[in-house]
Design goal:
With 125 residues, the chain is mostly beta strands. Helices cover 12% and strands 68% of the residues.
């Protein structure tokens, strides 16, 4: 009976995949760094996400435009305004244990020019 309960718990955890809230930090090649929060939810129509991060002492809200989850790998694309400039970031990460970590690339939505790139890591809350 105990084995059956352990098996059921393992299946439930695996089925949830990377769903949850993760908080951590990011660090970019252009010198930017701060806190990041990523929430992933599985909905009937696919995955949903919310991403916020800090920059220059303020909280930056984003608009998520794309979310893909394949097993333990996650890719989220979002736009945000920074001092009147609309930017787009793509974060990719992989869940290992309770840590979701990977890299990001940010570009201008106006001309597609690269703005920053770096790494991020966040832990399940």
């Amino acid at each position: 009976m105990r084995l059956l309960i352990c098996f059921a718990l393992a299946v439930a955890l695996f089925a949830a995949g990377p769903a949850g809230t993760y908080k951590g930090t990011y660090s970019g090649s252009a010198g930017a760094s701060g806190d990041i929060s990523v929430t992933l939810k599985q909905a009937d129509e696919g995955w949903k996400s919310d991403v916020t991060f800090t920059f220059g002492g303020g909280d930056i809200k984003t608009k998520v435009t794309s979310v893909s989850v394949e097993g333990s790998k996650v890719k989220i694309v979002y736009t945000f305004d920074l001092d009147g400039n609309e930017l787009e970031s793509t974060i990719k990460g992989e869940l290992k244990g309770t840590t979701l970590a990977g890299d990001y690339h940010t570009k201008s939505t106006e001309d597609g020019s690269a703005i920053d790139e770096g790494t991020w890591t966040a832990t399940a809350q």
